[in-house]
Design a protein that fits this description.
The protein is an alpha+beta fold. Strands 1, 7, 8, 9 and 10 form a five-stranded antiparallel sheet that branches. A hairpin with a 3-residue loop joins β8 and β9. α2 runs parallel beside α3 and α4 runs antiparallel to α5.
């Protein structure tokens, strides 16, 4: 079980070919982060394999897998998209689209045969590419007057967040990114500085999560 601020994904495309009773299953595991990217890839593969009987898929998006969908594309309900999605789940991956293209070989596989074939094809595509771990990072923005600069930067040096943006003038701004599990300590230290500075320091907590290795 991964820690709450770590997730697994892929950064390269994986491919596999699975054959069952003369039916050929071409499987593709593709890194994606948005619905728009999913739609773009689906359009490309549907056009490329326009002569295939079925172009089935499943995807899971978001650092915590908040969005997911499975599509059977004409296969019996639950025999294609669901087993594909099941493989994404079993490998604890997210931000992944898996497309499985089927060329019918003339022999019906039956419900159980389809489930096994789509599951195996998806698994092989996902196993063909490296799985990477990434952290979920939160951000805060600090706004303060110049006399507080040394105190603000001292905490940056000690806690070691990533400095995303900084503006040093009469009115200063520092934008910091840090692994989610370590962020509360950073915020706590700056909240104490808010009190000490008599509210001369303002903190904005961003709930948009950023990812990096």
């Amino acid at each position: 079980m991964l820690e709450e601020d770590i997730y697994k994904t892929i950064e390269q495309q994986g491919e596999a070919i699975y054959t069952e009773k003369r039916s050929k299953f071409l499987a593709f595991a593709i890194p994606v982060t948005t619905i728009e990217q999913v739609k773009e890839h689906l359009e490309v593969y549907q056009k490329k394999y326009y002569d295939a009987r079925h172009v089935c898929y499943a995807y899971r998006l978001g650092e915590r897998g908040e969005q997911e969908r499975a599509n059977d594309n004409g296969e019996p309900s639950g025999t294609a998209g669901k087993p594909i999605l099941g493989q994404i789940h079993s490998k604890e991956l997210t931000n992944v689209l898996v497309i499985v293209v089927r060329y019918f070989g003339g022999v019906k596989l039956g419900t159980s045969g389809l489930i096994v074939a789509y599951r195996a094809a998806a698994a092989e595509a996902l196993e063909a590419v490296e799985h990477v771990e990434k952290t979920i990072n939160g951000e805060i923005i600090l706004k303060f007057s110049y006399p507080l600069l040394n105190e603000v930067l001292r905490i940056v040096k000690e806690e070691e967040p990533k400095v995303v943006e900084q503006v040093f003038d009469n009115d200063c701004l520092v934008r910091l990114s840090m692994r989610l599990s370590r962020l509360p300590r950073l915020v706590e230290r700056y909240e104490k500085l808010v009190i000490a500075s008599k509210n001369d320091l303002k903190i904005e907590k961003l709930f948009k999560f950023l990812s990096k290795k």
